[in-house]
C-alpha cells in the first residue's frame, strides 16, 4: 500500500471461482464513490487510456479500481479465438464478484459504486449493473457495446451515460438503439472528431471529463 497526494493505492488480487483477477485500487481521501473499470479484450489495467481516465476520475474525488476481467492465459487464448471478449455472462460475473469483494474491503466498503466500461466491457458493465440494482450508482460506457447487454437494458436502474465517437458509425447506431431501450436516467454524448479508440488529439480528454463529472454527481 502506498499513499501519494492523498491517494491510497493498493495492488489487489480478487478471488473468483478458480482464478484471481489482478488489479490496482486507488482511493483519494474523502472519496464518496468508487468506479470499477471493465475494459474490452486486448486492453488491460495498464492501458494508457484507462489510466488517464482513472486519474481524471480520481481528481474529481472518486476512487478507481482498474482490474483485468481475464487472466493473462485467457487473454492469450482470446487473442486467437475472440470468444471470451463476447461472453457477457462470464465478464459480468467477474465484475459482480469484484464489486462484492470491494464492498467488504475496509478501504472501500462505505463507498457508492459505479462502472466505467469500454468496448465489450461496456456491455458487461450494463449486465452487472442490472443484476446488482441499487448497489450501482452510475454507469459510463465509452465506445461500448450496450447491444450485447440484451435484456439487461430494460432492467437498468443506474443513471447511464453512453459516450461514442462521431467517426464510429456502426457503434453509434448500436448505442442509439440501446439508448432508446434504457428506462433509467440516461444521456448520450457524441464526441466530435473521435474514432472508436478516441486516439485523436483532445478526444480522450473529453471522455475523461464527461465520465468524471457523471460519477462525481451521481456517486456523491
Question: Could you walk me through the main structural features you see in this protein, from its secondary elements to its overall organization?
Answer:
This protein has helices at 48-59, 72-81, 88-104, 120-132, 169-181, 203-218; strands at 2-4, 7-16, 19-28, 33-38, 63-67, 112-118, 136-142, 160-165, 186-191. By secondary structure, the chain is an alpha/beta fold. It has a single domain (2-218), classed as Rossmann fold. Strands 1-2-3-5-4-6-7-8-9 form a nine-stranded mixed sheet, with helices on both faces. A hairpin with a 2-residue loop joins β1 and β2 (7-16). The longest helix has 17 residues, at 88-104.
SSE arrangement:
Elements: E1 2-4, E2 7-16, E3 19-28, E4 33-38, H1 48-59, E5 63-67, H2 72-81, H3 88-104, E6 112-118, H4 120-132, E7 136-142, E8 160-165, H5 169-181, E9 186-191, H6 203-218
Parallel strand pairs: 4-5, 4-6, 6-7, 7-8, 8-9
Antiparallel strand pairs: 1-2, 2-3, 3-5
Give a brief description.
The chain is an alpha/beta fold. The protein contains six helices and nine strands.
The geometry reads as: globular
The Rg value, from CA coordinates, equals 16 Å
CATH superfamily: Alpha/Beta hydrolase fold, catalytic domain
Q: Counting H and I runs of at least 4 residues, what is the number of helices?
A: 6
Strand order of the largest sheet: 1-2-3-5-4-6-7-8-9
Low-confidence stretches: none
Fill in the CATH topology. Answer: Rossmann fold
**Ends: how far apart?**
25 Å
Report helical residue fraction: 25-40%
CATH architecture type: 3-Layer(aba) Sandwich
Class from secondary-structure proportions: alpha/beta
Strand content: 25-35%
Amino acid at each position: 500500500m502506498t499513499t501519494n497526494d492523498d491517494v491510497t493505492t493498493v495492488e489487489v488480487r480478487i478471488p473468483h471461482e478458480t482464478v484471481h483477477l489482478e488489479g490496482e485500487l486507488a482511493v483519494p481521501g474523502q472519496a464518496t464513490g468508487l468506479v470499477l473499470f471493465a475494459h474490452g479484450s486486448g486492453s488491460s489495467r495498464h492501458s494508457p487510456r484507462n489510466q488517464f481516465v482513472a486519474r481524471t476520475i480520481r481528481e474529481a474525488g472518486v476512487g478507481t479500481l482498474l482490474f483485468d476481467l481475464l487472466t493473462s492465459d485467457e487473454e492469450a487464448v482470446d487473442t486467437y479465438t475472440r470468444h471470451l471478449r463476447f461472453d457477457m455472462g462470464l465478464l459480468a460475473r467477474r465484475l459482480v464478484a469484484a464489486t462484492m469483494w470491494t464492498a467488504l474491503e475496509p478501504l472501500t466498503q462505505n463507498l457508492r459504486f459505479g462502472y466505467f466500461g469500454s468496448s465489450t466491457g461496456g456491455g458487461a458493465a450494463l449486465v452487472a449493473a442490472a443484476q446488482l440494482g441499487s448497489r450501482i450508482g452510475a454507469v459510463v460506457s465509452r465506445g461500448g457495446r450496450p447491444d450485447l447487454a440484451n435484456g439487461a437494458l430494460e432492467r437498468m436502474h443506474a443513471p447511464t451515460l453512453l459516450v461514442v465517437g462521431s467517426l464510429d458509425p456502426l457503434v453509434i447506431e448500436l448505442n442509439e438503439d440501446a439508448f432508446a431501450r434504457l428506462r433509467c436516467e440516461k444521456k448520450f454524448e457524441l464526441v466530435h472528431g473521435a474514432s472508436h479508440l478516441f486516439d485523436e488529439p483532445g478526444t480522450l480528454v473529453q471522455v475523461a471529463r464527461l465520465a468524471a463529472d457523471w460519477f462525481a454527481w451521481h456517486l456523491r
